[in-house]
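Researcher: Structure prediction, please.
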Amino acid sequence: MWLTNPILSCAVNPEKQYTMKKLGVKGLKVLKVLHLLFIMMWAMGVAAMAIISSIEPTSGDGLYIMLHIIRLIDDTLVIPGAMAAVITAIVYGIYTNWGFFKYRWITVKWIISILLIILGTFYFSPKLDKCINIVELHREEALNNPEVIKNLKISLFGAYVQSSILIFLIVISVFKPWKKKKSKINI
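Model: Predicted structure follows.
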């Protein structure tokens, strides 16, 4: 007896192992384009944040505008780009032969991508929000606030490091440097 699972888009035969349907040529091309667009959103957003963070504002209003532009880039490019890149990567893992951990370079990409997202969400984003709050309350005095100065330096360094890491992930996606993982044979 065959059962159809609409969620997994696969047929289940109790006597045989089931396999997921794979994307066709057109589907794979569409997925690739979407994945690349989302990666570009993420990477270019982080690069833009790094460039803008390197500006040294001369007034509280300038600092206020700079921080709000960085927040806008984070909210409209970086966060949606990163989340959509993860979603398309999951689709790649399920509906293509690439899998999730079949190749070392894919495993490295997963680990680094998740770490970047966690770091951005729970470390850098709160620092940005804290700076915005201080600047909203103290405008001109915020230029000399030690916490703002420290957070801006950390954010600048973090944006350049994250940009470099995202470029590294793009490079390993193109060159696929590590061979396929060896499968373990059970005896």
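Model: The two ends are 32 Å apart (CA to CA).
Researcher: Thanks, that helps.
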